[in-house]
Amino acid sequence: MEAAVNEKLTRVGPGTPMGELMRRYWQPIAAVAELDAHPTKPVRLLGEDLVLYKDLSGRYGLVERHCPHRRADLSYGMVEQCGLRCSYHGWQFDHDGRCIEQPFEETTNPESHYKDRIRINAYPVEAKRGLLWAYMGPQPAPLVPNWEPFTWGNGFVQIVFSEVPCNWLQCQENSIDPVHFEWLHDNWAQRMRNRDGPYAPKHLKLDFEEIDYGIVYKRVREGGDEKNPLWTIGRVCLWPNALFTGNHFEWRVPINDTTTLSVGWFFNRVPKEREPFVQESIPSWTSPVIDSATGRNITSHIMNQDFVGWVGQGGIADRTKEHLGTSDRGVVMMRRRFLADLDRIAKGEEPKALIRDAKLNQCIQLPIIDRDVFVNGLTRAEMAKREEQRRNATAAYQEGFLFLSGQPDAVRKAFDDAMR
Ligand code: FES
Ligand SMILES: [Fe+2]
Known about the structure:
By secondary structure, this protein is an alpha+beta fold. It folds into 2 domains: 36-134, Rieske Iron-sulfur Protein (3-layer Sandwich); 148-419, no CATH class. It is built from 11 helices and 19 strands.
């Protein structure tokens, strides 16, 4: 790949081609639970410093971080009935970024209407299924996708964030790279645990298929065939920056060019015996990437192993130096699709997978193997049997459900209670 193409595909700041593409899609940036616990949160998204808040009327806002008066940090501001007030001299801003109060100016010089000439950048925010979504692109905004799993009930949902120190694209290329599972999660994981035994079943065949909302990958591994492939799932590289596996999503949200917010959304169906199960609130937590004792990456959990793969490629992977093989057919397909989308945007057209049809958005179906299990559930006995089968099939699952390190005890307990 030429250096200029690598730049084009990876840079996300304002005015960059890929930055413009990313701004056309709603991005998950925080959890509803976080803003319930504390009403302001500093965030960095696509290279812009911002503050997310929930005002006293319950409305969300996302505005630029520094007050236009004398640049104080609005994440230390106070939320009001309408909007956010700077704690330094009390200027107040609404969710559209309008300055609606300047206490001293209005007292001493009310006829100047100075506030009418002040405005800050502000972006729409919506809450959906425990997440807060931001849109930073041109109007009219598309809809926040209502992916099918968001409509499911009788499940325990948790949201997990990690700040991964590398560019978003190498994270997303992982969504279309089936072979890594065999090595990073099976063989390497096994070796790190000093387990003897042969290498995991090899990948024999890969296939990739473009769908409306992304690219699906399929695989055949040793011990299976196309009708009944061993441990294979139609996984979706979800456009433009997520992975979807059936009951979990992972978004790779660009914080800036060299830092990515990994946002995991995990759905676990409770046993049939627990129905009807209603989750009071969706917990969120942050999973560490670095082991504080050694200063090295955490390697014990599935997603942490992915992070090792991504971060190892460098802040922004130098794709001029790579040597692609046939295993990378999906990666190539994805890059080409992005380049085609960038051309479309340059011509004033829309990129792939924007959702504007409210009827369609009532429930957007994705390829899901075992849909029936997620929707209708299993009994405790059936669940135990499946878990056993899964553990035997692949080393990566031998350590159980946990995909990420550092789950708080309270969340683990709530999960265990729900699944009991
Ligand atoms: S710096 Fe914000 S009101 Fe003065
Ligand atoms: Fe992985």
